[in-house]
Amino acid sequence: MKKNLLTVLTLILPVLTFAQEEVGLDQKIDQAFAPIANFFKNVVFFPIYQGEEFTIPFVLLLLVGSALFFTIYFGFPNIRYFWTAINTVRGKYEDIEKHGAQELYGEDGIAQGQDLTNVDIEEHLVSVEDDLAVDGDIVDTIRDESSEGEVSHFQALATAVSGTVGNGNIAGVALAIALGGPGATFWMIICGLLGMSTKFVECTLGVQYRDVGEDGTVYGGPMYYISKGLKSKGFKTLGKIAAGIFAVFCIGGSFGGGNAAQSNQATIVIKELFNWQSTAAGAIVGLVLAVLVGIIIIGGIKRIASVTEKVVPFMALMYIIACVYIIFSNFSLIDDAIGLIVKEAFNPTAFGVGSVIGVLLVGFKRAAFSNEAGAGSASIAHSAVRTKYSASEGLVALLEPFIDTVVICTMTALVIIIFNFGGFFEYGGDGSGVVFIDGEPFEGAGITSKAFAQYIPYSNIFLTIAVVLFAVSTMISWSYYGLQSWKFLFGRGKVADLVYKILFLTFVVIGAAASMGSIWSFSDAMIFAMIFPNMVGLFLLFPVVKKQLNRYLDAIKLKVDAIED
Fold this sequence. Notes:
Main location: membrane
Family: Belongs to the alanine or glycine:cation symporter (AGCS) (TC 2.A.25) family.
Oligomer: single chain
Transmembrane segments: 54-76, 237-256, 276-299, 311-333, 395-419, 461-481, 502-520, 526-545
InterPro entries: Na/Ala_symport (IPR001463)
Number of domains: 1
Organism: Neotamlana laminarinivorans
């Protein structure tokens, strides 16, 4: 522990000088980052239509259109395979994932229904070498694929969820409602449901094309399935270029949405709790967060997974309980809130939204930022799973947008909408995301905090803890995403790792000290920029996903038939 702490302090030593200057620190950071953030934002959100009432950026159309295509092509996997995904996380199919269905239940394998406790699987695999193929694998290439991987299905899901269930669920939802009104919630839910299909595709590919080092370390994600997958299709050069571009954007995303935006929102609620006004307070909070995050990320994916599998379920459950308490404490207003969400989705009255398309765009944008379906980031965590079937983890991954957007984001939205039945602020505001409650400005997590405080005593303490836990869990997951991308570009040496970690921990402090505007502009641009190269891979490789899905479903059927016989 002492060694880890000393290492972290060494990593963030360059940041201490940065944090010493008190006067105008946030303004100086904004001045430095605003031009960069605005430039990237304008490029990434380049409009294919620009009118007086709304603007349609191409990236959002690409994201939603792709999600709709994958949903239809795979036969609505977000609905059909939802329970299969639950069973996979529960470990119901762990035996076939470890050894393969045909080896355990097939006609050329062990007799159906036989007790497998004392069976030597390796010896059995040798006995079937004369077959052309075993469970879809050519005989000469058979290996124990289940031994390749570092974490379980649940740990992979928890790590990926911790990367998405963050302050986008608290601050992002509040921002969506502040800008687009209650109707934005409806489109957030729709985007979340469609995003389940995209997440399934990209995470299946993440496992299918991963690299496994000699020491068992897994390297996966869009960088690998774009480069290796496109090479197998005869597009080697395109694959290398697209993979490199993705890695650059993913590193930017790890510094922005996965880091600076998270420490920014954590700092806001901490400063509000203790009523700190000093601009240097943000940098101090950032330094503390940097130490905490640094201690965790030094251990790599196994330590990250061991932390997230404990923290994520706990914090998500506590947050949901608090939301449910508020919602059902105002039971008579639930139908009014739901009715307002549906009505405003198709007939928005929020100032500045202007039309159905306007509120739809607000909802889709915030949902996409929250669950990251289409960005490909989560496949980096899911690729580290131990499994013989890549589609098994793809199915597990489709639960992610459901948990993140359909459940948690909706809970937050209902709390804010019920709160605002008291007429505390005007939907739409001035278009900046800042609303005035009792004459004071609030934005992001501050709006959610104000809503919680209306119904739960000392909720400011609870929400502060929730926001900080959300932020830390997201940062440690995104540090892994960014580091994997960094390794892809600069190699897997210790020096490269050290440089990345110094930069990452520096951005923890930068995010904490800066204002919300510039940080979120930069974060939005980086997260959405990842969509472009990722979609190149998804659209050229989705037939592979279909094949792997059928392979996994056939394996499950073999087991079910064997048990029934």
